[in-house]
Amino acid sequence: MALPLETEPPAAQDPELEQLEIELLLEAVYRRYGFDFRQYAQASLKRRLWRRALAEGLETITDLQARLLHDPPCMERLLLDLSINVTSMFRDPTFYVAFRQKVVPLLRTYPFTRIWCAGCSTGEEVYSLAIVLEEEGLYDRTRIYATDINEAVLATAREGVFPLAKMQQYTQNYIRGGGTRDFSRYYVTAYDGARFARTLTENVVFAQHNLAMDRAFNQFNVVACRNVMIYFDKTLQERVHTLFHESLETFGILALGHKESLSFTPFADRYEPVDEVERIYRKIR
Ligand SMILES: C[S@@+](CC[C@H](N)C(=O)[O-])C[C@H]1O[C@@H](n2cnc3c(N)ncnc32)[C@H](O)[C@@H]1O
């Protein structure tokens, strides 16, 4: 029986039992499907597990665990709930101003640039970076590796069709992010969608990669990972920082965006700031 949404989840009355159920569920998901959410920040994880349980008409986290183990499509639905795919083109436009002013000049000194966009969601960030690089004359000598844990969002990213209704906001973001061209030159309208130019993904490889489990897979000049690690606990954040540090060339750029920080991590002294506000760093050791 489904609980009304306003009902207090029953297990919330016994926090210790609820915690145990959550830990067992995460262990079960990991062992059955290989997705490791055991080190995600607790508060938002708990809310999302409950939301899934209620949406499935279940009354306890243990019921949700049983459903997940026996019903792989339920796991896909949970994955969408947990992976929080909110994104937009030229999100936090001042990041792109800083990228153009402070990162692009460094990239010009390289004959070829490899960029890893980790946790790229449905790809709006990747298309935004591709547009900046194209406008700065660097796209032809760049390869972007765009990864996410979630295959469903990557499929949308490869498609490159975004809601037409969002184009007004994206155009404003683009201009605030330092764009000076007519933004509509980058897409054609198709029904209620905006199909972005295929040329923008010619140098992009979209691939599934799990930051919580997978290894480094290349050496990069830039790693961009914005609005992803905020969902991880401290231990997982450190794992991911280790991965990024291993994946970056010396003097490579780590772009975290203003919501994340390197301070208070063991890697703080391995980088120097390139832009303090946008949390863009350069690996120095
Ligand atoms: C809020 S979106 C951020 C998208 C984009 N970077 C931006 O700033 O707009 C977070 C993305 O991180 C991805 N993600 C979450 N856990 C992950 C993991 N362990 N490995 C790789 N990607 C992950 C989610 O699937 C989601 O698409």
Structural class: alpha/beta
Strand order of the largest sheet: 6-2-1-7-8-10-9
The number of helical runs is 9
Quantity of strands, as a count: 10
Order of helices and strands: HHHHHEHEHEHEEEEHEEE
**Ligands present:** S-adenosylmethionine
Protein architecture, described:
The chain has helices spanning 15-33, 42-55, 61-70, 72-83, 93-107, 124-135, 151-159, 167-176, 234-247, and strands spanning 113-118, 142-148, 161-163, 187-190, 193-196, 204-208, 220-224, 248-255, 271-275, 280-283. The chain has 285 residues and is of the alpha/beta class. A hairpin with a 4-residue loop joins strand 9 (271-275) and strand 10 (280-283). Helix 1 runs parallel beside helix 3. It starts with 14 loop residues before the first helix and ends with a strand. 36% of the residues are buried. The chain binds S-adenosylmethionine. The site of S-adenosylmethionine has 20 residues, from loops.
Highlighted features:
285 residues, single chain, disordered N terminus, three-stranded antiparallel beta sheet, binds S-adenosylmethionine, alpha/beta, seven-stranded mixed beta sheet
